[in-house]
Amino acid sequence: MSAPALDLPAAGSRAVPFSQRLRNPIWLLAPAVIFLSFIYLVPLIDLIRISFNGSTPWIHFERVFSLPLYWDSLVRTMGISVTVAILCCIFGYPTALMIHRTRGWVQVFVATTIILPYFIAILIRTYSWMVLLGRNGPINKLAVALGIFDEPMQLLFNRGAVLLGMTAVLLPIMVLSIYSSVARLDSGLTRAAAASGAGPIATFWRVLLPLTLPGAGAGFLLVFVMGLGFFITPTLLGGPGDQMFAMHITQQANFVTSEGFLQALGVVLLVITLVVVGVAGRFLGFEFLWGGGKLAEAHESKSRSGASAPHRRTAGMVVADTLGWPILRALSKLPGSVGRVTVSAMTIFVIATLIVPIVAVAIISFSHASYMTFPPPSYSLRWYEEFFTDSAWIEAFLNSLSIAVISAVMAVALGASAAMGIVRSKIVGKTLIMLLIVSPVIVPPVVLGLSLYGLYLRTGLDGTIGGLAAAHAIGGLPIVVVIVSASLQSVSRDLERAAAVHGASPMTVFRMVTLPAIAPGLAAATFFAFLHSFDELVLTLFLTGPRLQTLPLRLWADVNYQLNPVLAVVSTLEVLLVIGGIILARPVLARPQRAQ
Amino acid sequence: MEDSARAPQGWADASAPARPAASSPANQTIGSSVDVRSVTKYYGHFRAADDISLSVSPGEFITLLGPSGSGKTTLLNLVAGFQKIDAGEILVDGKPIHHVPTHKRGFGMVFQGYALFPNMTVTQNVAFPLRMAGVDRQTAERRVAETLEIMRMSDHAHKAPSQMSGGQQQRVAIARAIVMRPKVVLMDEPLSALDRRLRESIQIEIRDLHQTLGSTILFVTHDQGEALTMSDRIAVLNAGHIVQVGTPVEIYRHPVDRFVASFVGESNLIEAEVMQKRGDMMTLRNRAGYTFSARSRNAIDVGKATVLVRPERITISNEAGKNSIPVTVTSALFLGEILRIEAEMEGGEKLLIRCSDSAHRGLPAIGGTLHASWGADDCWMLS
């Protein structure tokens, strides 16, 4: 009945033993950092090097900026991205508020309709807009039936379609970003404002909006930056006048002669993206990229100086005071329900734009007609049969499946270890390392594909399942790191200490306490990394050979070649995969809430 | 429900640390001594623990008391091994342990938020230390059952932590900490998440448990009342230093400085000037010019002094008497067994008075004049 004997080493040895230094969690970062260095950083640096390969270093850049074709396209790309970001803000805000305010099944419904499309491939969501807006699509049919149009109109291949498609694709990012800052708000704040005599509009203007502005700002930037590199949606929905910058890169990639110039195009897009992110990061903090709070840096306790800094009146506050109050007083004369009705109406509109295309595609997949038309003249499983009996489709599906599985395993192994390192080590510059790991999210996929192209050709990785899986893992890694570090941060330190103090060695603590606590996060991360690879198209376009077809590649070829209902079948199956994954994950994801 | 039904088993008397142990000797552990020697811990440039030395005798119940940020939790974490010390050493039974990893130190610990493993049942939680120590299954089962019995949690053995109330969870956490009969048990504000009545009943339970087990207990709290009722000795910490170590009686009656005087219990700190000193007897004059006498073993010869008079030592009367000081009542509260009166002396100095309502006089009128006095022995000089 005595305590376990103390294992006592000699006292007074100040130096940290080597074995203990090896156990430092900082080493857990090594695999991910090495992986990213070889397959991500070095190719990007190589891309920059090649772009300066010419008779004079700047010759390719001079060409990019002197040709009106590229200059115009650059301006157009910026314009479209800003417009899309603004549209996402306008429609995303009420939707995020709605998710926050509703309860029960309404909340679940609204949240699901926003989140579900987020996991469906951009290609498929764009395709569903082609179906919806097509000459024989439901919108044209409805408008003709109602007498708005005399005959079906060409709704596709114009700027409006591009803006609509991109906004719909990027809206979930905005909503999630705003929602994360709305959800963090103390619910007592709105009540306190109301108790102090503020109407709903004043509460929104003076309390909700200022406090959620960082979330909206982060969403705006993410949408803008992602919009800059957009390729799939403008290609499919735009006309000749809607060429975006990334499209030029893929077009030029078909001409081998443009070595150097092609890379210069990529570098221009990359630099613009990085400058935007860099400037934004200076003001917002780079945390906006991973949507989390600041990382606990080593020696945080001394950085309390911010709290004591004098409260400065920003220009925004002055504007809000001088302009805001008169407007608020005027608005407060409106009945209180106006705001509520506006929010609900906009949310319903948002849900419709996100869900209707998916539903329309699902209906069309059961069509018996041999061409795309809505509503289908008759229903059958004909196109499902076509898909499952076509060996090319099945082979592409199996290829995608194996690539995605391997890629998810790679991303989770590297990412989970890196997340441990990020959360648990005490090093200066955590933000910098996190930035490196998360940065593949913002690098335009076209640029990434271009930079990897050379590496893959040289090493013979192009067109191999392993090579594609590794390339997809570049984008899967940030997803895993963000999710797993979030769940690690929520593991109570005392829980691990309780295990340690009662005799559990570090490995046992991890196995018995940490791992069960982060298991739901790990499961979710695995699923998302899998989906990321399964849906990946742009990198694959650059890196595949003629021998290796993936599902998105076949879809892409068919969307450009002929719009047949088999595509609707594939889309519907993918939607079912995502829904199935979420349903399977639900008991796992719901567990931590019950435990608390 | 079940918690409130259980009445306290006896009145704790802080001045009488030795109480009969009600246990069978088989369960009795001989606690370890814990020596903290010149321990320093930095967070960046902030000294969380600054050259702290503290000797804990075997089997002692010592409380680390201090406001938040005083370094009490840091000190406990250093003893537990959650953080590495930057200078100094920590010895258990005379052997240095500050290089021993936490899991080999063989302590038991109770955490503020219970820290029960959510994926294990009560039994599995309590069995955890036994499992880690490689105790065989049969012995482990018996020990878990025994310990749950002591904590009166046997009925909940197969529940998950999330199915229990805070008080029950904390009892399981205590069971887990003592199941190995460790020589040292660390407790990090274990009662702060509980409501007042539950807290008081578990305070007494922990006290009794300490008598039964004989382990050395290091108990961290910011609640001075808790420290006074539970401890053999209290170490008061402030800003990374230990300010005073002593029995509850010593700390309360003879605080070394203003900080301890005002942090532990309610206090009147009266500014006065020493007029005369004869042996340990002094005559002092307060700012308004009234004189009173004080007897204190730390009497000083001459000059300005701060005199501590506890509110409950002050008596009030309607008539002026020898050594009495007239005060104006500014607030009076009826607290049941006592009256709490705030008053002002001439010159604006505040005086807090707690007196029993034995005469059933009721509350004095606000703005009325009373005459406050205290005995020479009720004074304590602060430097």
From TrEMBL, chain A:
GO BP terms: transmembrane transport
Record-annotated membrane-spanning stretches: 26-48, 69-93, 105-124, 161-182, 261-284, 348-372, 392-420, 432-456, 468-488, 509-531, 566-589
Keywords assigned: Cell membrane, Membrane, Transmembrane, Transmembrane helix, Transport
Membrane topology: Multi-pass membrane protein
Cross-referenced CDD domains: TM_PBP2 (cd06261)
Entry-linked SUPFAM superfamilies: MetI-like
Subcellular location: Cell membrane
PROSITE patterns: ABC_TM1
Main subcellular location of this protein, as a coarse class: membrane
GO CC aspect terms: plasma membrane
Keyword Cell membrane: yes
A Pfam family recorded for this sequence: BPD_transp_1
InterPro entries the UniProt entry points to: MetI-like, MetI-like_sf
Similarity annotation: Belongs to the binding-protein-dependent transport system permease family. CysTW subfamily.
Annotated PANTHER family: ABC TRANSPORTER PERMEASE PROTEIN, INNER MEMBRANE ABC TRANSPORTER PERMEASE PROTEIN YDCU-RELATED-RELATED
Protein name: ABC transporter permease subunit
Organism: Jiella pacifica
From TrEMBL, chain B:
SUPFAM superfamilies, A to Z: MOP-like (SSF50331), P-loop containing nucleoside triphosphate hydrolases (SSF52540)
Similarity comment: Belongs to the ABC transporter superfamily. Spermidine/putrescine importer (TC 3.A.1.11.1) family.
Domain ABC transporter: 34-264
Subunit record text: The complex is composed of two ATP-binding proteins (PotA), two transmembrane proteins (PotB and PotC) and a solute-binding protein (PotD).
Function according to Swiss-Prot or TrEMBL: Part of the ABC transporter complex PotABCD involved in spermidine/putrescine import. Responsible for energy coupling to the transport system.
Top enzyme class: translocase
Known EC number: 7.6.2.11
Main location: membrane
UniProt subcellular location: Cell inner membrane
GO molecular function, one term: ABC-type putrescine transporter activity
Transmembrane segments: none
NCBIfam families found in the cross-reference section: potA (TIGR01187)
Keywords: ATP-binding, Cell membrane, Membrane, Nucleotide-binding, Translocase, Transport
Region Disordered, residue ranges: 1-30
Topology of the protein relative to the lipid bilayer: Peripheral membrane protein
One GO location term (cellular component): ATP-binding cassette (ABC) transporter complex
Compositional bias segments (type: Low complexity): 12-26
One Pfam match: TOBE_2
Protein name (record): Spermidine/putrescine import ATP-binding protein PotA
